[in-house]
Design goal:
Blueprint: E1 3-5, E2 9-12, E3 24-29, E4 31-34, E5 37-40, E6 44-46, E7 58-63, E8 69-74, E9 79-83, E10 86-89, E11 93-98, E12 102-105, E13 111-115, E14 126-130, H1 141-144, E15 147-152, E16 158-162, E17 180-184, E18 224-229, E19 232-237, E20 242-245, H2 247-250, E21 258-259, E22 273-277, E23 282-286, E24 300-303, E25 321-324, E26 331-336, E27 341-345, E28 348-356, E29 360-368, E30 378-381, E31 384-388, E32 393-396, E33 400-403, H3 408-412, E34 424-428, E35 433-438, E36 448-453, E37 458-463, E38 468-470, E39 479-481, E40 487-490, E41 503-507, E42 510-511, E43 519-525, E44 528-529, E45 540-548, E46 555-564, E47 570-576, E48 578-585, E49 593-594, E50 598-603
Parallel strand pairs: 2-3
Antiparallel strand pairs: 1-50, 3-41, 4-5, 6-40, 7-8, 8-9, 9-10, 11-17, 12-13, 13-16, 14-15, 14-17, 15-16, 18-19, 19-20, 20-21, 22-23, 23-24, 24-25, 26-27, 27-28, 28-29, 30-31, 31-32, 32-33, 34-35, 35-36, 36-37, 38-39, 39-40, 41-48, 42-48, 43-47, 43-50, 44-49, 45-46, 45-48
Length: 607
């Protein structure tokens, strides 16, 4: 009998019925399309075996003038700068007190109570003590003089922490007199609390120094924005303070970053986002406070003098200045392309361009009526920008337009809207992909992804937990992070770290002659390539043929066959009006690419 080639349209389509999507793919996981055919995604492996404190939600890599390579990593509890696989804690300090802290211990307990009037700390904060004296017993000076995480904060004047030793009856002193307490900035939280998203008020929980008794940290999801100014790093808490890490001053010992305002009193003290205009070397603060004011204006843009991060007062002799957007209520995200900076507000899109003296920058509205899902939902690719809106996707390539998406309902009908600020957009330029990691309806973290392949104009999706992403460039591989606080090199090998990665793709039912008659499938001629698998891998895939009688009846039968790299044909038995194909691998070290399988089809009767 003649053989029929199974050919399917590239990409997924879940917007139409299965019957309407005949000869199309409908479901997959860990799959991408290249040259019109599906193949397994590249794997990933831990970038480093070290972990960090907190969930990373921001990554930025840069190279210094001496060729040192760094990567900034922002989490809700700490900010790190990575060099040579070492994570260096450069979390800024918010306050340092000297000679004010005293300690109290209880016999048989490792819990120490610290007293420091108006300390301003909250539960989960980190403080480093130095110059403390022994309490007289097991709680020695060496035990006290280190970094601790605050366990409870009973009042504005006291807190507790768990020491590295258990007190005995001799620990009756207070260790005070000359103790130095270096308080790191208040920790943030790792979830979105209702009413504290990007559209729900200012960052923080009240006045500085107010008592904190809750178990959570700051009131908003802790997000960071960062960019390098030459070999230095400028970064800020989203809707929070702005910091500067000077490589020439702080790299030798990886000293802590300092506030930008401590370097220039006229610099913004709060901003939604910091970025560097690479073409003209200005530091730009988006959604910041005006000069002479401490109140954040979420539509205000300010920039420093050219080639200076520490000159923010406009004069006739410099190029610093400001602009105010007149449309919308807040800038949600700024994205730099090669020719301009795109400002996406909650109601539209603006273009910020360097025009030179005397105005320095000019701004134009280029779209109205658009939305954006969250502060990290947009990504630049060359001169274009892609972003996820509240219920659709958008692209900008000189003009803003909705991006047709044949998997739209699959994404937004299973979406945790309360945690939408966690959406993270990234690019995988090696494969022409834009990827959005997002939280499904049943998850509080990003557990799914959707990819638009702009090279092939197709979409596909799957499951994976990633909280931040960095495309390759300075780093050899794309890097992703998750809540386990590891960094992973992506497109590295073919497995899920050191475990086997399950990948599959499944088609919609496809009929012959419009499904007017019953058919019988008797033989499968596979066409699958395992050449990129590990040499030691068991190179096999499971092919499943699913039969269907009517579009609304579901699949009524399946025929499964295990195919290896040497399989020339496989006997199957399936009967119906239409048939679907599923290909799946679960083995360690297996990589595959599907071609055009063929099946033997015979006309069959009703029985």
């Amino acid at each position: 009998m003649p053989l029929s080639k199974l050919q399917f349209k590239p990409g997924l389509n879940t917007e139409v019925t299965s019957y309407s999507n005949a000869s199309g793919w409908r479901d997959c996981d860990k799959i991408r399309f290249r040259f019109g055919f599906p193949e397994k995604l590249g794997g990933w492996l831990k970038y480093s075996t070290s972990t960090m404190i907190g969930t990373p939600r921001s990554l930025h890599a840069w190279r210094a003038l001496d060729a040192s390579e760094y990567m900034g990593i922002g989490a809700e509890a700490k900010f790190y700068i990575e060099e040579g696989l070492g994570f260096n804690d450069v979390t800024p300090l918010r306050d340092t007190t000297t000679g004010e802290v005293t300690f109290a211990a209880v016999n048989g307990s490792a819990t120490i109570t610290g007293t420091d009037n108006d300390h301003g700390a909250i539960v989960g904060d980190y403080v480093t003590f130095s110059s403390a004296a022994s309490l007289g017993g097991n709680i020695t000076a060496a035990v006290l003089n280190q970094e601790y995480k605050l366990l409870t904060v009973p009042s504005a004047n006291t807190y507790t922490f768990t020491a590295t030793a258990t007190a005995n009856s001799s620990d009756s002193g207070n260790g005070g007199g000359s103790t130095v307490a270096a308080y790191q900035i208040n920790v943030g939280i790792t979830t979105v609390v209702g009413g504290t998203g990007f559209g729900a008020g200012t960052f923080g929980r009240g006045t500085y120094g107010s008592a904190a008794t809750t178990v959570a940290g700051g009131g908003s999801l802790r997000l960071w924005r960062q960019d390098n100014f030459g070999e230095d790093l400028v970064f800020n808490i989203y809707d929070g303070a702005i910091y500067y890490w000077d490589k020439s001053v702080q790299a030798a010992t990886f000293g802590r970053a300092v506030t930008l305002a401590s370097l220039d009193s006229s610099a913004p003290t709060i901003a939604r986002q910091m970025l560097i205009s690479d073409r003209d070397r200005h530091v730009i603060a988006v959604g910041c406070n005006a000069l002479g004011s401490s109140v954040q204006d979420k539509l205000l843009i300010r920039w420093s003098d050219q080639e200076s991060a520490t000159d923010w007062t406009p004069t006739a002799a410099n190029t610093s200045g400001d602009l105010l957007i007149g449309n919308g209520s807040q800038i949600v995200q700024a994205v730099e392309t090669r020719r301009e900076i795109i400002l996406i507000t909650d109601m539209g899109v603006h273009s910020l361009q360097f025009i030179g003296p005397p105005f320095t920058f000019g701004i134009n509205q280029i779209a109205n009526g658009t939305t954006i899902r969250g502060p990290n939902a947009a990504v630049a690719v060359g001169d274009g920008v892609f972003w996820m809106g509240r219920d659709r996707f958008y692209t900008y390539d000189g003009q803003v337009k909705p991006l047709p998406c044949p998997v739209l309902d699959t994404v937004f009908q299973s979406f945790n809207n309360e945690q939408g600020d966690k959406v993270f957009a990234g690019s995988n330029s090696s494969f022409g992909e834009v990827i959005w990691f997002y939280p499904s309806a049943s998850s509080t973290e990003n557990d799914r992804y959707v990819i638009y392949n702009y090279s092939e104009n197709v979409w596909y999706f799957g499951t994976i937990e990633r909280t931040a992403w960095l495309d390759r460039g300075l780093k050899q591989y794309p890097i992703g992070t998750n809540t386990s606080t590891y960094l992973y090199n992506h497109e590295f090998g073919v497995d899920d770290d050191e475990d086997a990665m399950t990948s599959y793709i499944e088609s919609s039912p496809t009929g012959v002659d419009d499904g007017d008659q019953f058919l019988s499938l008797r033989r499968l001629i596979p066409d699958i390539d395992f050449s990129k698998s590990d040499d030691s891998a068991s190179k096999e895939a499971v092919f499943t043929i699913k039969s269907q009688r009517f579009p609304g009846s579901g699949f009524v039968g399946t025929s499964t066959s295990t195919v290896t790299s040497t399989t020339d044909q496989s006997n199957i038995r399936a009967r119906g009006r239409s048939f679907g194909l599923r290909v799946e691998t679960t083995g360690l070290g297996v990589s595959w690419r599907l071609g055009s399988p063929r099946v033997e089809i015979r006309k069959d009767g009703m029985r």
